[in-house]
């Protein structure tokens, strides 16, 4: 679920193409006749935008915190509900299924149906309601109800990320945008990290209060986690008020995503874009399902305590928070996106092979996985903008997210079945095979791009020179 935001954060100012010209009106009449006001209350002032940014960052905190609740409580969910791993991984599959479709239409709903403010509140309600239903299912020991909760949660989760990015572009269009997207991504990873490291402690406290471990303690823990979703809903309400107020004061239009989804554009996608899709799916299916199953893996193979297992399992997210903006800056300054993707995929393969075939300290492999995961996002997602025209970007990114969610849903269930019948070694070999497919696709991408002029693998200087020449010709 985090990949859409990463792509946006790494595109930086290019995300301005997703919105129209909505620069705030300044000068006479720009304040709507309100006169002077304190800086913290003035939508044109940086201090006020910082206040908005705080609520903007926490808007998705609950969604990211609760997304990996099953991973943080893997042992407890399996034992308290008497589940096998295949059924456990269906909790992730049910999150992904609605987003196979909604990734196409989330931007359309925000633009044309709900509007950014009302749409954000609606999607936040879905996230909050989904987590409550999920927790209620655990309290009642009804697994089907937990699955329904994850489905409802998924309806809101990805679309809420679209809304968060839309708010960011509307409020910070210009030089501050890259920093804002980086901060949003860091807050998302912070939510995932806190979840991984605190939910086990919460479960133990709840179990002590109710008298013993079990599904009642599990449901209570998940209900406590729902508080973070309620907090994010409050942030959505505050943002709606602040945005409405700024619209009145600055006399500007309500923002939208600007995404235009046209399925007919798919037939015009070049081979290079389809290879990017293959890399995306084959890579991420070896990351998120592994993290979802990682806690028990580290307990069984490396004899870690549950707390140690949760800590090492969360290191990918911990590293991603500060590394993503730094590596994004590196890729921006050097170019050569395809080469960076090759490095990232190769490093990820090395990390999975270390976990599968050695007993080296898993902190080494997981740290390498965290860096390579961040690097791939920095280099892969912006490449879409290099191979399709601007009017097809919404369709291309929507299709990319859609097939990514389809792959995650299918592989999540497959991974659970493999683990139940074959064990962790065969599962790691399976993940290595997925990464090998991604590596073959990126090597093919390198040669196809080379034969077509090497646009994707240009240096940053060459790309800037071509853009400057194109601008001069247009003038």
TrEMBL record:
<comment type="similarity">
    <text>Belongs to the major facilitator superfamily.</text>
</comment>
<keyword id="KW-0813">Transport</keyword>
<feature type="transmembrane region" description="Helical">
    <location>
        <begin position="92"/>
        <end position="110"/>
    </location>
</feature>
<feature type="domain" description="Major facilitator superfamily (MFS) profile">
    <location>
        <begin position="46"/>
        <end position="452"/>
    </location>
</feature>
<feature type="transmembrane region" description="Helical">
    <location>
        <begin position="399"/>
        <end position="419"/>
    </location>
</feature>
<feature type="transmembrane region" description="Helical">
    <location>
        <begin position="338"/>
        <end position="357"/>
    </location>
</feature>
<dbReference type="InterPro" id="IPR011701">
    <property type="entry name" value="MFS"/>
</dbReference>
<feature type="transmembrane region" description="Helical">
    <location>
        <begin position="425"/>
        <end position="448"/>
    </location>
</feature>
<keyword id="KW-0812">Transmembrane</keyword>
<keyword id="KW-1133">Transmembrane helix</keyword>
<feature type="transmembrane region" description="Helical">
    <location>
        <begin position="46"/>
        <end position="65"/>
    </location>
</feature>
<feature type="transmembrane region" description="Helical">
    <location>
        <begin position="122"/>
        <end position="145"/>
    </location>
</feature>
<dbReference type="InterPro" id="IPR020846">
    <property type="entry name" value="MFS_dom"/>
</dbReference>
<feature type="transmembrane region" description="Helical">
    <location>
        <begin position="271"/>
        <end position="291"/>
    </location>
</feature>
<keyword id="KW-0472">Membrane</keyword>
<protein>
    <submittedName>
        <fullName>Major facilitator superfamily domain-containing protein 1 isoform X2</fullName>
    </submittedName>
</protein>
<dbReference type="Pfam" id="PF07690">
    <property type="entry name" value="MFS_1"/>
</dbReference>
<feature type="transmembrane region" description="Helical">
    <location>
        <begin position="311"/>
        <end position="331"/>
    </location>
</feature>
<feature type="transmembrane region" description="Helical">
    <location>
        <begin position="363"/>
        <end position="387"/>
    </location>
</feature>
<dbReference type="GO" id="GO:0022857">
    <property type="term" value="F:transmembrane transporter activity"/>
</dbReference>
<dbReference type="InterPro" id="IPR052187">
    <property type="entry name" value="MFSD1"/>
</dbReference>
<dbReference type="GO" id="GO:0005764">
    <property type="term" value="C:lysosome"/>
</dbReference>
<dbReference type="GO" id="GO:0012505">
    <property type="term" value="C:endomembrane system"/>
</dbReference>
<feature type="transmembrane region" description="Helical">
    <location>
        <begin position="215"/>
        <end position="242"/>
    </location>
</feature>
């Amino acid at each position: 679920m985090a990949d859409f935001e990463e792509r946006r954060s790494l595109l930086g100012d290019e995300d301005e193409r997703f919105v129209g010209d909505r620069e705030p009106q300044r000068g006479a009449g720009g304040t709507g006749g309100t006169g002077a006001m304190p800086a913290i209350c003035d939508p044109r002032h940086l201090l006020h935008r910082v206040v908005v940014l705080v609520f903007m960052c926490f808007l998705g905190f609950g969604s990211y915190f609760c997304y990996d609740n099953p991973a943080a409580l893997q042992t407890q969910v399996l034992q308290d509900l008497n589940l096998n791993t295949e059924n456990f991984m269906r909790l992730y599959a049910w999150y992904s299924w609605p987003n196979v479709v909604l990734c196409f239409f989330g931007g359309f709903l925000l633009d044309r149906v709900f509007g950014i403010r009302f749409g954000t509140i609606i999607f936040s309600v879905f996230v909050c309601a989904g987590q409550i239903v999920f927790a209620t299912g655990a309290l009642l020991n009804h697994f089907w109800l937990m699955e329904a909760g994850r489905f409802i949660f998924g309806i809101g989760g990805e679309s809420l990320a679209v809304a968060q990015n839309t708010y960011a572009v509307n409020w910070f269009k210009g030089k501050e945008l890259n920093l804002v997207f980086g901060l949003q991504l860091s807050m998302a990873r912070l939510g995932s990290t806190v979840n991984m490291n605190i939910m086990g402690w919460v479960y133990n406290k709840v179990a002590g209060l109710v008298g013993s471990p079990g599904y009642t303690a599990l449901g209570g823990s998940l209900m406590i986690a729902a508080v973070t979703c309620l907090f994010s809903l409050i942030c959505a309400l505050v943002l709606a008020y602040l945005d409405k107020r700024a619209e009145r004061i600055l006399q500007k239009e309500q923002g939208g995503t600007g995404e235009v989804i046209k399925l007919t554009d798919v037939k015009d996608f070049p081979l290079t874009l389809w290879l990017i899709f293959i890399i995306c799916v084959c890579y991420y299916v070896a990351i998120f399902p592994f993290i979802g199953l990682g806690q028990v893996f580290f307990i069984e193979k490396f004899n870690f305590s549950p707390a140690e297992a949760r800590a090492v399992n969360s290191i990918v997210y911990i590293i991603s928070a500060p590394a993503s903006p730094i590596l994004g800056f590196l890729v921006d300054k050097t170019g050569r996106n395809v080469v960076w993707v090759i490095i990232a995929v190769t490093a990820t393969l090395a990390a999975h092979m270390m976990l599968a075939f050695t007993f080296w300290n898993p902190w080494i492999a997981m740290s390498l996985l965290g860096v390579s995961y961040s690097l791939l996002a920095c280099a892969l997602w912006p490449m879409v903008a290099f191979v399709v025209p601007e009017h097809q970007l919404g369709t291309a990114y929507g299709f990319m997210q859609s097939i990514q969610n389809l792959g995650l849903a299918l592989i999540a269930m497959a991974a659970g079945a493999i683990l139940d019948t074959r064990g962790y070694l065969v599962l790691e070999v399976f993940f290595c095979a997925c990464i090998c497919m991604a590596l073959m696709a990126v090597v093919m991408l390198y040669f196809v791009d080379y034969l077509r002029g090497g646009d994707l693998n240009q240096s940053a200087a060459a790309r800037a020179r071509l853009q400057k020449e194109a601008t001069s010709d247009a003038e």
